[in-house]
Amino acid sequence: MRRVIATIAVLALAGCGGAPKRAAPPPKPPHLPRALARAWAAQANAVAQALAAGDGCSAQQRANELRDEVVQAVNRRQVPARFQETLGTAVNDLPARITCNPAPPAPAPKPHPHPPHHDHGPGHGHGHGKDH
User: N or C: lower Cβ tally within 10 Å for the chain?
Assistant: First the structure.
């Protein structure tokens, strides 16, 4: 009896709607717009370079700028919801983790030795040996 019911069910399904339905393609994974990703990568590199140079104040300023741009992009709905929390947490915490210390001073230039002044004795030089 089960075979009959199964066969009827298969035939009924085959007769309804013609061809079998195709599964919907999987949704595309969320992604950041390429321009944003590149801009933020460049800003993150600028933060890292300032830190590597020992300039914490510039690094902190650049981190604040990066944070502000990410917040604006989230508000404009340019960042997929899936990334908002992780990205927001990372950029919000970044400036607070940087200590503002000014860049070390540039090394003082080495003084150039001046050629020794040659004294050629009386009558040489400016205004000597002339009657005024």
Answer: C
How many residues in total does the chain contain?
132
Q: Tens digit of pLDDT per residue, the chain (132 long)?
A: 444 344 454 444 444 455 556 778 887 887 888 999 999 999 999 999 999 999 999 999 999 999 999 999 999 999 999 989 998 898 999 999 999 987 777 777 777 666 656 555 565 555 555 555
